[in-house]
Structures are given as structure tokens and as C-alpha cells.
# Entry
Amino acid sequence: MSMRIRTSALTALAVAAVAAGTVLAAPAGAAPKAAVPKFLSASQLPPHPTSSWTAEPVTEGFPEELGFCVSTEGVLDYDYRHRTFRTDLDTGAVQLTVVTGTAAQAKALAKHYDDLIRTCADRIEKASPDIEAESRDYGKLKVEEGAHVRGLHTETSFGASDVDLLSVGRDGRTVTVLQWGQMGDFKDAPVTAFKKTTTTAVNKLY
# Structure
């Protein structure tokens, strides 16, 4: 779904996220201090054909825009920061970074988030019978400790159609999650450009 998710759909999808199966144990004690990961700039997002991107300030906490596929359920005591991006039209994006305590924790968290994205379509349909959802696997990227790109298309019973691209990447003990979304379907998704954006995001973590 695009960044302007309807309230009713968001409520149902948040319930689906909470019901996700894999839960990670919280790390023992606070994570050691580390260099603050760098975020994408507006110019590094997939180009929009008719509107420029605007980047909001980097903000502490978990972005609600990710709540329908990725959540903090069962994942505690990490350093969450995010930045949202918008255009003048219906296209939006968000980047989350998570600094964990160790590389092993980051590897497990990245897998957890990727599993949530991989199973998101099924959970959406289970939670919301009036929404049809389909996912696509766009493959792995060879950048730092790796990244994975997936797509999600949702269509409601009243005809609203939205497409999202989501990715999870890791560098050391830091994980980043990206989401791009707008009205449309898979043919409207800039997969190649989003892969480039994901690669840039992972390279910027440290």
C-alpha cells in the first residue's frame, strides 16, 4: 500500500503484523554506542516522472508507515531511527535503520524483517477479506552483508490498487528497511531504480 494508507486498512494490517510468527528475543542490556548510520537523501530515491522528492528530518522511533508489514513486536531495546520521503502526488517512501548489539543480532533481525515482508500478503488477506494481496520476490543484492528486495500489490473490493517495493539490508550490526509505495500495480513499480536505492542505503550505513 502507498504511504497514504487508509485508516481502516491500516488497522487491519497492524493486527496482521502483530500476529506474525517469528519473534526475536530482546538483547541482554543496552547495545554499545556506535557511529550513527547515514540516511538516504531525497535525490537517491527512485526518480518520480513528474514530481521531486522531499526528505523529512531523521526522527527517533519506529515509523508507522511500516506497521502493516514490519513491526517491533517481540523486538525490543534497539535504536530505531527513520526518515520519510514524499512527493507532491501519491508516491511516498520511508527508511528505517536499526542498530543492534552484535552482527549476529543484526543478521537475525534482518531475516526476521525479510520473513515478515515475505509473508505479508498472506497475513493481509487473512486479516482483511476485502483486500487481495500478492507478493513478488525481486531477489538478493550483493552489497555489504546482503540485501533482499520484494514487491507487494494490494487491491481492495472497492477498487483501490496500491503497489509497494520493500527491502531489507545489513552492514555489520546495523539493519535498514526501505519501503516505496504509490497507487498502481507491479507494472508501475521502478524495480531497477529501487534496487539501486537499496544498494546506496546499505552502503551509507557506515
